[in-house]
C-alpha cells in the first residue's frame, strides 16, 4: 500500500513537471471549480474556524490538494474526521486527491480545512479569500462567505425536508 502511494505520487510529480515544461503558459483557472463554499464564524473566545466546499476537478487527471493559505491565518490544515475507538477524531492529512472528472465534498463531520491562529474573529457575512494549492502548482483563489454554524444547520435540515 505504501509503495503504491509512493509510485502514484511520483507519477503525479512527473506529470506536473511534464505539464509545466510543455504548457508553461497554460492557465489552470478552469481546471478546478469550487462550489457551495463557506467558512464558519468564530465562536467567541476562540481563534479557530473551518472551511467547507465542494471541489470539482474538471480535468482528465487527478488533482491533489496539498494545502491552503489565507491572509486571515498562517496555519491552515487539511483535516478529516475519522472514527477511532468509537470516538470522532480530527486527523490532519498531507493531501486530498480530487479524482479526474469528479469532486470531493468538504463538509461538517468529514473533510474540512482547519484554520488556526486567526488574526481576528470571522463575522457572519464577511468574505474571506482562501487560496487552494495543488501538487501541479495550480492555485485557486476562492472567496468564502462567513456563516454561523446554526444558520447552516437550519438550511441543511430545511433542504433535507425537500427530499
Ligand atoms: Cu479540523
Bound molecules: copper (II) ion
User: Structural class, from secondary structure content?
Assistant: alpha+beta
Task: Please state the overall shape, judged from the principal axes of the Cα atoms.
Answer: globular
By CATH, the topology is Immunoglobulin-like
Average pLDDT rating: 83
**CATH homologous group name:** PCu(A)C copper chaperone
Task: Give the CATH class.
Answer: Mainly Beta
- Report the helical percentage: 10-25%
How much is the radius of gyration in Å?
A: 17 Å
Return the string of H and E elements: HEEEEEEEEEEH
- Describe the main β-sheet briefly: 10 strands, mixed
Please report the number of helical segments.
Answer: 2
Distance between the termini: 39 Å
**Unreliable spans:** 1-6, 20-28
CATH architecture: Sandwich
Percent of residues in β-strands? 35-45%
How many E-type strands? 10
Explain briefly what this protein structure is.
The protein has 163 residues and is α+β, with helices and mostly antiparallel strands. 21% of the residues lie in helices and 44% in strands. It is globular, with a radius of gyration of 17 Å.
Characteristic terms for this protein:
163 residues; alpha+beta; Immunoglobulin-like; 21% helix; binds copper (II) ion
What does the model show?
The structure is a single chain. 21% of the residues are buried. The model is unreliable at 1-6 and 20-28 (pLDDT under 50). The protein is globular, with a radius of gyration of 17 Å. It has helices spanning 2-22, 149-161; strands spanning 32-40, 49-57, 63-69, 75-84, 87-93, 96-98, 102-106, 112-116, 127-134, 139-147. The N and C termini lie far apart (39 Å). Strands 1, 2, 3, 4, 5, 6, 7, 8, 9 and 10 form a 10-stranded mixed beta sheet that branches. It has a single domain (26-149), classed as PCu(A)C copper chaperone (Immunoglobulin-like, Sandwich), CATH 2.60.40. Helices cover 21% and strands 44% of the residues. A hairpin with a 4-residue loop joins strand 9 and strand 10. It is of the alpha+beta class. It is built from 2 helices and 10 strands; from the N terminus they run αββββββββββα. Copper (II) ion is lined by residues 50, 79, 90, 112, 114.
